[in-house]
């Protein structure tokens, strides 16, 4: 990714400055130039990985981070009112590790999960059952059976990528602008300003990393 290269070669020391520069100079056909109709890094997940690279370069002296195997314990979906049924019963999600589906949770049918709707906090809390070991790159895709929830890129309601080595204190919180698809203004009639996803993990020993990871 060019934005990462701009950090690597020293033109920018911070990922945010590199992303802003790249966004101002990228043409729709992918070439770099100056003008008005340009687009930068397209998704929040892409930007997240540029930030990861900044950490590798500035804090880890360019070395690969140590593996951090985790298990997914809890998923909290914030500001759920107005999203589909408003209870999470229309949602399911898939967890991918190294681009292979490792887990599917169906909130409506309570497959691989227990679900609680908290009206006062306006959130759905999903206790994940049978989580596989997650290590390195992880993708989570959320689908809705409701016709009122828009499908975006990747034919899903929303999704995101993250790397387990950069998860701090077994928690990852992603507000609306850091979720792929809901970050686009055209979806904001469904995904309100306070919409977000929080993931809670448990640590597992490195000995539980399956062969072939890393």
Write a structural description.
Residues 67-204 form the C2 tensin-type domain. One of its GO terms (molecular function) is phosphatidylinositol-3,4,5-trisphosphate 3-phosphatase activity. The chain has 3 helices and 10 strands; from the N terminus they run αααββββββββββ. Strands 1, 4, 5, 6, 9 and 10 form a 6-stranded antiparallel β-sheet that branches. Residues 1-9 and 11-41 have low confidence and may be disordered. α1 (2-8) crosses α2 (15-25). By secondary structure, it is an alpha+beta fold. It has helices at 2-8, 15-25, 44-58; strands at 70-78, 91-97, 100-106, 113-118, 123-128, 133-134, 137-144, 158-163, 171-175, 196-203. It is globular, with a radius of gyration of 18 Å. The protein has 2 domains: 1-60, no CATH class; 70-208, Immunoglobulin-like (Sandwich), CATH 2.60.40.
